[in-house]
TrEMBL record:
Pfam families xref list: FlK (PF22636)
Species per Swiss-Prot/TrEMBL record: Dactylosporangium matsuzakiense
Gene3D superfamilies per UniProt: Hotdog Thioesterase (3.10.129.10)
Protein known as: Fluoroacetyl-CoA-specific thioesterase-like domain-containing protein
Chain ranges passing through the membrane: none
The Fluoroacetyl-CoA-specific thioesterase-like domain, residue ranges: 104-203
SUPFAM superfamilies: Thioesterase/thiol ester dehydrase-isomerase
UniProt-listed InterPro entries: FlK, FlK-like_dom, HotDog_dom_sf
CDD domains reported in the protein's UniProt record: hot_dog
Amino acid sequence: MDDIWLAPIGEPLDLAVSAGLPPVPLPDQCHVEQLIWHGDALTGELHAYVAARSANTVTVRIAHGARLVADVRIRRGPVRTARTHTLLRREPETGTALTRLFPVTKDVTTDHVPEADPVLSTPSIIAFMEDTAADILRAAFAPGTASLGTWIGVRHSGPATIGQTVTVTAVLADVRGRRYLFDVHAHVDGREVGDGQVAQTLIGRP
């Protein structure tokens, strides 16, 4: 496997690309700082290369031919969990996970599209993921604290129809001050229909 810290920028990497999170293997003492999906499922003949590098971060780009699929920004060192605020009664640890179930009803589908079967809309699956992530923080809110969704990197990869139930899991992946980054997955009957990352930022309400 190529060393991403030494590989020339733009040159193909000898890396095994997978459909999971993270989509590329991580070097020791590193973690994914940000994941951005540009395309659909990681299928077909994929290749990866270093798109950008700084002293402590490297962005690995995954592509299918000329089509971008994802950018994975990797940072040296452990996940940061330093507490710099008093907006929570207790600080959730990285790795904290929560799973919620969401029924697919007419109001969360694309029933407004003419001559198409109604399926779960992309804005709705994102809302499910954000709400699940926010629930990890809500359990620890101090009085007057709220959180806002401030970043989305989500791939909607499969359908869900009215009457089905979407199982959404959020896992706290990284903390930077008031900003909390979560890995998120959505499944229907054991089949993945979406994944990616969302971020929540804490705010103090007057």
